[in-house]
């Protein structure tokens, strides 16, 4: 069986993701589970190792100590880099 649906018919712009993403981004971040892209270790974000003495907050995996996340905030705004996160899982709203 072939899919006759054209990809352009299904494509929306990024604004359509706002509802779901606002649920993910509105949770208590310390309870979000993070899977490390380096070692595959899984731990709550609150269990990660924080280095706050740099120009940005740096969170490291508690298993392998590789950088998982960087967050910087200044007059230009907020920047979040999560290249060390393979998966971020938020608990259900409750």
Note down, in words, how this protein is organized:
With 94 residues, this protein is mainly beta. It is built from two helices and seven strands. Strand 3 (49-51) and strand 4 form a beta hairpin. The protein starts with 6 loop residues before the first helix and ends in a 5-residue tail after the last strand. The mean pLDDT is 87.
Question: What's a concise summary of this model?
Answer:
The protein is mainly β.
Keywords:
3-stranded antiparallel sheet, 94 residues, 2 helices, 4-stranded antiparallel sheet
**What percent strand?**
25-35%
Looking at the chains present, what oligomeric state does this protein adopt? single chain
Based on CA atoms alone, the radius of gyration comes out at 17 Å
What structural category arises from helix and sheet content? mainly beta
- Distance between the first and last residues' Cα: 41 Å
> What's the main sheet like?
4 strands, antiparallel
Poorly predicted runs of 5 or more residues: none
Principal-axis shape equals globular
Instruction: Summarize the helix and strand pattern as letters.
Output: HHEEEEEEE
Write the layout of secondary structure elements.
Layout lengths: L6 H4 L7 H8 L7 E4 L5 E3 L4 E3 L5 E4 L6 E8 L2 E5 L3 E5 L5
